[in-house]
Amino acid sequence: MLDIKKIREDFPILKRQVNGKPLVYLDNAATSQTPQQVIDAIVDYYQNYNANIHRGVHTLSQEATDKYEQARLKIQKHFNAAKSYEIIFTSGTTHSINLVANGFSSLIKKGDEVIVSAMEHHSNIVPWQMLCERTGAVLKVIPMNLDGELLMDVYEDLLSDKTKLVFCNHISNALGTINPIEEIIEKAHAVGAAVLIDGAQATPHLVADVQALDVDFYTCSAHKICGPTGVGMLYGKEEWLNKLPPYQGGGEMIAEVTFEKTTYADLPHKFEAGTPNICGGIAFGAALDYMNAIGFEEIAKYEHELLEYATQELLKIEGLKIYGTAKNKTSVISFNIEGVHPYDMGSILDKLGIAVRTGHHCAQPIMDFFKIPGTVRASFAFYNTKEEVDVLVQGVLKAKSMLL
Amino acid sequence: MPKLLIGIITCCNFVQNKAMEIKEIQEEIIDEFSMFDDWMQRYEYMIELGKSLPLIKEEFKTDDNIIKGCQSKVWVHAELEDNKLVFTADSDAIITKGIIAILIRAFSNQKPQDILDADTEFIDEIGLKEHLSPTRANGLVSMIKQLKLYAVAYQTQIEE
């Protein structure tokens, strides 16, 4: 059993008031809050060993390099990657996806096919559209049903020897659906296609074992798992990372430079041009330490309880409809009240100190699919409580009475 | 404040003296809002105002007249009557509609030059500042820009 009261003590921000009310933070799918342990790691870096890494012989640089590389090892261990150099530090999921999409430009030709799912964050669709524009490849989409589940039989039909890459999120940010990525990966491999899984929404709730999954690329952002913004990771199988050309040119990614020719550094540095987010990387490691100390199994169990309770209580409200009712879903509830615009609902909930996301959640194709302008999305983390669910339900009722 | 009173004030809003200047109307709005004790009353009033907004004619509710905010859609239309600009508008979100109603009440039936010279600080004074923040994705900031653009266009027309 998690001691939620004690866990909440770790998060200074949860003590603050918003609009005169205690903050009820239910926008965890957008970004998670930061525990003191991670804040301390950030402060420690700047107070004690701030230096550029991989190049200085002085002590501070050595210390910073050690800590940064230790963080890489923590990430490797967490995702069970075979080699530490298969973990590339990036600025986050979007950067990782662009890195892969850009790299595939040289591996894909006209007429080849790239498959994405219908429930992607729309910023994640763009890199593949750009890849297809550059190469003349064709973008195919795995559709979903009204519960927000991918139609796996259609996926199978889409796959062929033309398929070069499949991209799908592990968990949908707008609907909370946990996608059957094992099956997606296995079927893609059967036709020789590579698979990139966006784990941004999954990493806070479960541990992905990249070797067990046999996934080719997996990515996540630190700020969704109690870490800072602006840092994330890309896991890539060694053979794939070697096949991809470097994404950005700059310092640290080169072995030798003359004006005639440059040879690139080995993995992972080939993909880490310039001075990285050193502090961010170290804090990313600290965030994984923090969450692992609590334990992902306990976190998942508790969040599932919150999800079930919140679903049950919200559905008692007349006129409330939940979008995303997949059997296998995480602690995200997207909903609307009939006749109420999500923006209005969000504005009033904000006045009550309740932070939810409103709008299309950067997943316009999903909103178009349901023919709605957007939804109100409450997303729960392990530090949320049933009492906060009650505050949300009361807030929704209050807003409903004001708006209708 | 009782709901009935809110209703009465709302009804009177758009029957204002056409000779009033923007600044006077803004002060009148500030006065009205000063009667409310808390945000809920202000919001309830604003929602009522939204319901009484002079609606844009359906024929003008085109994609050309749409101001896309990230979350709520806003339509606005302007016509020149006796050298004064008359605005009509709509939105799919009721709180946004309420703020539009307040803005239009201040800016409609005014000379284009006066609209150009006017500011929107009264929104701050009535405690609704957050809705006009450039970071709030509701289309209102773009709408004010659009009102001013109409004023520029018609001012040029008048001068010619």
Specify Rg of chain A, calculated over alpha carbons: 22 Å
Number of helices of chain A: 14
Rounded average pLDDT of chain A: 94
CATH architecture of chain B: Alpha-Beta Complex
The CATH topology of the largest domain in chain A turns out to be Aspartate Aminotransferase, domain 2
Order of helices and strands of chain B: HHHEEEHHHH
Strand content of chain A: 15-25%
Low-pLDDT segments, ≥5 res of chain A:
none
Output the CATH class name of chain B.
Answer: Alpha Beta
CATH architectural category of the largest domain in chain A: 3-Layer(aba) Sandwich
- What is the tally of helical segments of chain B? 7
| Spans of at least 5 consecutive residues with low confidence of chain B | none
Rg of chain B (CA only): 15 Å
Largest sheet of chain B: 3 strands, antiparallel
What structural class do you assign from the helix and strand content of chain B?
alpha+beta
What form of chain A results from the Cα inertia axes?
globular
Q: Identify the CATH class of the largest domain in chain A.
A: Alpha Beta
End-to-end C-alpha gap of chain B: 49 Å
Helix/strand structural class of chain A: alpha/beta
Number of domains of chain B: 1
How would you describe this structure to a colleague?
The complex is a heterodimer of chains A (404) and B (160). Chain A folds into two domains: 4-26 and 295-399, Aspartate Aminotransferase, domain 1 (Alpha-Beta Complex); 39-292, Type I PLP-dependent aspartate aminotransferase-like (Major domain) (Aspartate Aminotransferase, domain 2, 3-Layer(aba) Sandwich). In chain A, the strands form five sheets. Chain A has a seven-stranded mixed sheet with strand order 4-10-9-8-7-5-6, with helices on both faces. Chain A is globular. By secondary structure, chain A is an alpha/beta fold. Chain A is built from 14 helices and 17 strands. Chain A starts with a helix and ends with a helix. Chain B is α+β, with helices and mostly antiparallel strands. Chain B has a single domain (3-159), classed as Sufe protein. Chain: A, CATH 3.90.1010. In chain B, 51% of the residues lie in helices and 12% in strands. Chain A binds chain B through residues 19, 341-344, 347-348, 351, 358-360, 373-374, 402-403, and chain B through 39-40, 43-44, 47, 70-73, 92-96, 131, 137-138.
